[in-house]
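Memo to structure team: turn this sequence into structure tokens by end of day. - J.P.
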Amino acid sequence: MERKPWSVHFDMEANDESIQNTANSAQKDAKKKRSQADKVGKLKYLLAKDKKLDRDIAEIKLLLKVIFAGLKDSLHFEKSIIEEAACQDEVDKAILQLLFEAGAPGLLPKEIAAKLAEFKIARHQVTRRIVRMNKRLAKELDSEVVERRGWCWAMTRFGVDAYGASEKDLLAEGLTVYRAEGT
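Reply from structure team:
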């Protein structure tokens, strides 16, 4: 007999699986356990997982702070690391450079603003920027880069060490380059 798509005989095909086999597979499906996400809902499951990850990250941060506190005296930071952690833009970098050049007496915010006239910054903005730089650095490295001395702002020992090491490296590189060109 010829099979045609519209024929009744075409729709009736022989089933290889017996009825008993399909019953066994249904029992196996019933024995499968539901996942935790299916039990409590996907959103609650993901939120619980997120909270667990947040707790783990907080523990790691605490551990890093403890390690850093122990090694703080033996670590030496460079100017680039300080600028990356504390400075937000070029104005902050310029303020730190001016304070480093001023030395121990420091500078008044009015003097810093006058020297940074190209950035059109006011004296109160200088103070706000310095406070924000200190907060960012304290959050990252638990140290301050600038401190108040009377009405003036000056670099701390931590900042002077970081900027001083970088300046010595630059001077040493400049001398070697100059000597190489001269000879």
